[in-house]
Each structure stands twice: as C-alpha cells, then as structure tokens.
Specification:
alpha+beta; Aminopeptidase; 8-stranded mixed beta sheet; 8 strands; globular
Amino acid sequence: MRLTEVCRFQRLTDALKAGIEDVEATWHGSYINFNDPDPSMTKTVIRHAAPADFDDLLEIDRASFPGGVAYDASELSYFMNRVGAETLVAEQDGRVIAFIILEVHPIRRTATIVTLDVREPHRRAGHGTQLLERAEDILRDYGVEAYDLQVDVTNTGAIGFYRKHGFQKLRTLRRYYANGNDAYLMVKEL
C-alpha cells in the first residue's frame, strides 16, 4: 500500500471513529446518501473502490454485459489503474451493488465514462443516478467541462438513462464493440 493510500485510509478511519458520516477530502472521499427515494430503503454509501472490491466489480460487469462487451479481469484492472482513473462504488449493507469507472483528462478538461454497472436487482432504484451525480462532483473538481461515453445502440434503457441525465448523441461509432455492435458516442457539458 502506498503512503497516500495509507493516509487516505487513516483520515477515513479517523473520521468514522469520530462519527462523521459525510467525508469530503481532497481525494474525493465517500459519503452516505440520505436522499434515497424510498425512506424504507437501506442507505447507500458512495465511496472510492478498494482493491478488495475488484472481484465484485468484475462479477457485476460480467452480469451486466454480454460476452464481447463485458470486460475480462485484465481489461477491468487496466481501466481502474490508468492515470486519471476514478472508480466509485455504491454499497449497501457492506455489499457493492454498483460502480462507475471514469477516465479523467484534466489538461484537456474532458473525461470519459468507461462503464457504469448496477446489479440487476438494484436497477431503476436510483443507484446509477447517485454514482453519476457523485462522479460529476469529482469531474467539476478536476475542472472538466465535458465528458463522454459510448453506449450500444441496442441498449435502449441505457440510452434513455443517459439522455435523462443530459447526454446527447454526437455520432455513431460503427462496429465499436468486439461483438460487432455499433455504439453511440454521447456527450454532456458540465
């Protein structure tokens, strides 16, 4: 573990010992969402991914996308560990239920959503929105002015979700995915 990770962990541990539930640090710490749409719903914690989360993230991605689109372990690790990568998870009762990976290009003031995945039983409950909103806070901290994503043209649910959140189709990327499917390049200005 690097020194910066130890310091981050120590600050988070100290904050939790003190009973602080909303940790905002320069490293974009975690927070607990108390604005869940259903008051009986378990509270969701949005935090940065930890190495121990990797197997859960891989499982969620494989369950979310078909072969040829889902990432294998080396691809997922590559995207999570790139310079400028930010990986956030949504957690309930100690279990990761969703995650987002961003690739930030601060010099160009742009970013890309690499993937946004939610476990099937937790879809359409606002977790994708929570992750996206927290991701946008982080992107603003970086000074990002616009970010993009690629989405399969046949994934109407995801396309609708991204449109609802202000993304617009820029163009079609022919045969973008390994399975031969086209993708829309969608963009949102912050």
